[in-house]
Amino acid sequence: MKEILREIGAIARALDSISNIEFKELDLTKGQYLYVIRICEHPGIIQEKVAELLKVDRTTASRAIQKLENKGFIEKRIEQGNKKNKLLFPTAKSMDIYPFLKREGEYSNARALEGFSNEEINSIHSLLTRVLHNIEIDWEEVKKGHKRQY
């Protein structure tokens, strides 16, 4: 069987490394740009939902969000009627850099798919969506404390 996940992992690590270097001048490090993008795209999102979108645990998300709040990239607001939920909003600082972050993502996507036909691109997307769905099943179970059976 081909080691598909090794290839996917290598692609993800390479793109993350590039982004971390390119976004350092923006004072964004270690994948923080991903949080900024998601919060700009979903103003008022709760922390748990951000963690779910990025496929990270709550503690990792909490630390990253706290650092971004301290740096002035995001703002937390208490949800009306539910004081437990803190809604996350981008600040002007985030909104100013969001177009640049978005362009970088679009460039990386175009670069990755260079030379592929529309049919191949649709096929890759469809197949990766299925791979993600399969992995999400285990991710949800492991988050609940269950062990996978190898």
CATH class type of the largest domain? Mainly Alpha
Number of helical runs? 6
Task: Please count the beta strands (DSSP E, at least 2 residues each).
Answer: 3
The biggest sheet amounts to: 3 strands, antiparallel
Unreliable spans are none
Spatial separation of the terminal alpha carbons = 16 Å
Radius of gyration: 17 Å
Please state the structural category: mainly alpha
Assign the CATH topology of the largest domain: Arc Repressor Mutant, subunit A
Silhouette:
globular
Order of helices and strands: HHEHHEEHH
Helix content: 55-70%
User: How would you name the CATH homologous superfamily of the largest domain?
Assistant: Winged helix-like DNA-binding domain superfamily/Winged helix DNA-binding domain
Q: Strand percentage, roughly?
A: 5-15%
Number of domains: 2
Average pLDDT confidence is 92
CATH architecture of the largest domain: Orthogonal Bundle
How would you describe what is shown here?
Pfam families: MarR (PF01047). It is a single chain. With 150 residues, the chain is mainly alpha-helical. The protein folds into two domains: 95 residues, Winged helix-like DNA-binding domain superfamily/Winged helix DNA-binding domain (Arc Repressor Mutant, subunit A); 38 residues. 65% of the residues lie in helices and 11% in strands. It has a three-stranded antiparallel sheet with strand order 1-3-2. Strand 2 and strand 3 form a beta hairpin. Helix 2 packs across helix 5. It starts with a helix and ends in a 7-residue tail after the last helix. The model has no long low-confidence stretch (mean pLDDT 92).
